Amino acid sequence: MNNPKNNFIAVFNDSVKGIESYLESSFQKGHISEELLKKAKVNVLRNLQDWLFNDRIDQISPRAKEGITKAIEEGRWPDLVEAYIDDVAFGTAGIRGLAALSDEELLLLNKEGLDAPILKGPNTINNIVFARTATAIARYMETNSYSSIVIGFDSRIQGKAFAELLASIFLNYDIKVYFFDTAVPYPEVLFAVPTLKADIGLFISASHNDRRYNGFKICSLDGAPISVTERDNLYDNYIKKTEIAHVPEIVFERLTKKTNFQVIGEEIHKPFVDHMRQFLINKELIKEFGPKVLIGYSAFNGAGRNTVPGLLENSNFTNVQIIKELFEMDGLFPAFQEHPDQQPDPGDESAARIAIEAYKKEYPADFKNKNLDIIIGTDPDADRASVIIKVPDNQLEIFNEPYTLLPADEIWLLVLWYRLQHLKRFDDKFIAYTHVTSDSIGRLAKKYDVGAVRTWVGFTWIASAVNKVWQGEKLSRDTHPYLIYETNDMNEMRVNNISGLEQSYGFGFFGGPAPDERSFGSGGHVKDKDGTLGALMLAEIAAYAKSQNKTLIDLIDEIYLNPEIGLFVNYYEAEPRYGAYRSLEGFSKKVSVLKNALKILEDVKNGKDVRIADLKVSGGEQYQTGKYDTLHNWKGFPDEGIRFWFSDRENWLILRPSGTAQALRFHTQLHFEVTEKDIL
What we know:
alpha/beta; Alpha-D-Glucose-1,6-Bisphosphate, Chain A, domain 3; 4 domains; 6-stranded mixed sheet; 5-stranded mixed sheet; globular; magnesium; metal ion binding; A-D-PHexomutase_a/b/a-I/II/III
């Protein structure tokens, strides 16, 4: 009788020749370094061998090896290297990666389910990786006497099936599972965890990445991102030490009959919506002008599609027009077909153009007559919000279009400004924002005598900083180098957070110190960004602008023309334009660009005349926290970027790498002082 393992031996031997030949060729062409060549030769072949000869994989995913074998037979060496070079990185908020390495495989996954015979490996998102990682989390929960978990999902391909897979793992460990059986915004899961007094939340999502991606986010018992300490403990002592062989039985249908499985929905959704409405400032103004604001809404085929329109309508914004083409939940994101890496990111210019064109096609008269005031967009998991705004007639020559996407820096500047107008006390307030977010935010805070904490990039760090302020810790880069960029005007009285803000369209309210470890902050919302809340805040400002017979651009101009603020011009661009560089060549390219930038920084420090876009560089800094050193085999990897200053510290360029993907981000800012004589 033929032994299947004999077949795999022949297949593996073929893969050794093909992979080694591909790696050597890449090295000879200068696409990868010698160090990366050595790592790849060891890791890829070892991991591939482990998967091909692992019997437990046959039980978890019976057709997995069919997909692997097919990829080897087709000579897909770059894809095989990418799938087996490492484990999926466990980042600050969970795991995320390619669930399919091509659109053809994505369609097969969509059609045939989690066991579709596509190329799977430890560095892709698949049912085997999910099962192993969930088992590690379950063991972590068991050790810490955690007894319940909330699980949700958004519109990603096979999101519900992945959620059911996770649920089955936790049910095997007798952990109570609260299960959203329909797609919901991620912030609703964050709200559910402390509301239900659960211990952890998991959410199937790849945020605004392109359609081939998936993953899951993890939050702690207070609905905040897990802390750095908690994350390191979970990864070092559980995820790294959990093998595929440790994965328990996976039979979702039978396990859900257990009493510790509970489907949830409206009992969370209604309190979630009601909770957000308390943050509206002027309900009388909204009652009069809310119905007069014509709002377009783009769900970008994601989980905000019911929550955002319902929230707006229940808050007296009754004139909402749904962009139907982008409304239905669809993880294939059919409007985003221009490029395989194109992302359903509401803050991306190309996504904004898609929304504008779709609105124009569906509501031609309102578009032509400029009746539309704003278009609000949320990403697939609805934790980010953007706004497309009407351009005043007297500025059409500047923008060259009737509607334009408002950059996140200006959105949150506007939201903060509006809320500061209505505060009666400032000496106990502070904001938290990231170091790549516009300095206009800091200037506005200073104008109103509000403290400011500036963190490294991501709401994980914003939430952690707010928590430490609540605990009475004095923050600085010297005392908390892994967390803090700088602080301004902070003291022991400033414990009430009125805004958490980041350049990538994230916004939230934390409030004052939480009464206990399982609660929101006093007077605050979920301890992470929330696009559904952001949508509501933007709608209120649009109503205020309507009451003043102004546009949002008019309001922003008024802020910039204040001599205490001045004009800020912020710009962001990703490289590559969409997605990430692929495979080892992408890794090498990212590292090469960073090392070249560090050489330029060294020239600056040595007093050489360095210019960028004809602007003289006056100084610079490298930022590293150590969180991605191991992943890049680079002690001092500049995970938070390299900054070049021009004339002063409010004029700069930052080159910042993604920690877990092969991509780079460029952030730049120019500032112009405004005096009374400059104002017409």
